[in-house]
Specification:
80% of the residues lie in helices and 0% in strands.
């Protein structure tokens, strides 16, 4: 389905009025794409980046898990 001019204007207006939400959603989407790559392009990007040995995908995931666990503990302690 083609996007109408009105839909494009509404989207742009929303983005201008809610930049923090847009940045939050973008960061969340990037994190999810790194953790669970769905497209062949993203899977290939990870493969190429790790083939030369400079990056270890499994170690990076474990590091992210540690950061997430620490952040959850911090937020739960501050409730």
């Amino acid at each position: 389905m083609k996007t109408t001019q009105a839909q494009r204007r509404a989207t742009e207006t929303y983005r201008k009025k809610n930049p923090e939400r847009i940045r939050y959603q973008s960061a969340l989407g990037s994190a999810r794409s790194f953790i669970e790559p769905k497209t062949e392009k993203m899977k290939n990007n990870i493969k190429v980046a790790t083939e030369d040995g400079h990056f270890n995908y499994l170690d990076d995931l474990k590091s992210l898990r540690e950061l997430i666990d620490d952040r959850i503990k911090e937020l739960e302690a501050n409730k």
